[in-house]
Design a protein that fits this description.
The protein is mainly alpha-helical. It has three helices and no strands. About 65% of the residues lie in helices and about 0% in strands. The N and C termini lie far apart (about 40 Å).
Amino acid sequence: MIITLSDLLAGIRERKAVLGIIDTPERTDAMRNSGSRRTARKLAMLARIEDRSRDAGVV
C-alpha cells in the first residue's frame, strides 16, 4: 500500500482534530530540539556545514 505525504498529513490533522490537539506556536516550540545536549563532534560538524553553506552563498 502506498500512502502519499498529503494523505498522511491529512490523516494526522484529522486525528489531532478528534483528540482536540491544537498546534499553537508555543506547542511547536516546545517540541523542537533545543540542541542543548549536542556533542562537541556534532557542534563542529554543524559549524563546518554552516561555513560551507556560507562559502557557497547559500546562507
